[in-house]
Amino acid sequence: MSAEASVGGHAADSAQSAVSQPAFHNTDEFRNHGLLGSKYVKLNVGGSLHYTTVQTLSKEDSLLRSICNGGTEVSIDSEGWVVLDRCGRHFELVLNFLRDGSVPLPEDHRELEEVLKEAQYYQVQGLVQHCLGAMQKQKDVFETVCRIPMITSAKEEQKMIATCRKPVVKLQNNRGNNKYSYTSNSDDNLLKNIELFDKLVLRFNGRVVFVKDVLGDEICCWSFYGEGRKIAEVCCTSIVYATEKKQTKVEFPEARIFEETLNILIYENGRGSGPGGLHLLDSRGSGSSLGAEEEGASGGDRRVRRIHVRRHIMHDERGPGQQTVYKD
User: Fold this and answer.
1) CATH fold label, 40-143
2) For the whole model, what pTM was predicted?
3) 77, burial (CB in 10 Å: exposed 0-12, middle 13-18, buried 19+)
4) CA dihedral 150, 155, 156, 159 (to 10 degrees)
5) Structure confidence at residue 245 (pLDDT)
6) Which segments constitute the BTB domain (predicted)?
7) What are phi and psi of 162, to 5 degrees?
8) Labelling 99: which of 33, 43, 164, 319 has CA 20 to 30 A away?
């Protein structure tokens, strides 16, 4: 009788113990095998709820497949939702890639980087490669585009030049800022300066920052900057005298402009900071001035090369024998 009571008491204790066990517990066995045999999966990713199949999550050898086959521990709440402590903003995109094998990616570079981070976290290698390919295309497109800033104020110009790490070439072009009439070839030379600017932009794209200024006081003037300061200047305008009136003449010193553009490359990647870079610029001879007047102006403790086109005097009112004529 006592034996039967003992057996009965043991059975009752076992039943009570079984009832006291919670319906969902965090044992390793439950975590590893909670999704085995299931067809559908409910995912709670940072508060974003998703309902999908085990087959979809298992298409690639990823973290999601490891979760489904029990290789990775997960937390499941009392309602059966698999809780993933991750932002759910781009998880729908990850699911759609697993479903279709391809998915449209966002054009914004920052969002694309966010998608790449999620793909790397979930170890979906197909989506990782898809994101990397899209980012490379964006980089290629960006490098082939020539962007030319337009100056809108002196303050903006100073800030741009001071913060730019690349050499800067500025073309100041303001045809309307003229008191006199233009000579016959001035308009053609002005267009040639603009065309040369466009060609230099294409040739040195990515190495030099080219800037246009259509609000300045100069009609046509090139300025060259390195390390936040002006290095050289080529002014292409002058006043000439022709039969009792003054005229504005625009020159096109193509060789000198191209030379100064090459000189400014010494400041690319900060290479002009050392004494060697300064020596290269200062040792340039004056024989290549191409009929221009070169002035040295102090800019702090360094010189600024200002090259002005020689003034061509075609006629003046001085007496015979005192007139001076300079020919092109």
Assistant:
1) Potassium Channel Kv1.1; Chain A (3.30.710)
2) 0.49
3) exposed
4) 130
5) 82
6) 39-139
7) -70, -30
8) 33
Distance, in Å, from the CA atom of 291 to the CA atom of 256, rounded to the nearest integer, reads 10
Query: Which residues are within 8 A (CB) of 316 and not within 5 positions of it... i.e. 6 or more apart?
Result: 241, 323
Distance CA 231, CA 168 (A): 10
Residue whose pair of structure tokens reads 């998880």 in the numeric block:
91
Paired tokens of 84: 């993933």
Strand boundaries in the chain, DSSP class E: 40-45, 48-53, 75-76, 82-84, 168-173, 181-182, 209-213, 220-226, 229-235, 237-242, 245-250, 292-299, 302-309
Q: What is the residue extent of each domain of the chain?
A: 40-143, 150-269
Residues 212, 199: Cα–Cα separation, whole Å: 14
pLDDT at residue 120 tops 90 = yes
The CA dihedral of 253, 259, 263, 268, to the nearest 10 degrees, is 90
Q: Residue 307 burial by CB count (10 A; 0-12/13-18/19+): exposed, middle or buried? A: buried
In this model, does residue 248 exceed pLDDT 70?
yes
Hey, what CATH class is 150-269 in? alpha beta
Distance CA 255, CA 208 (A): 18
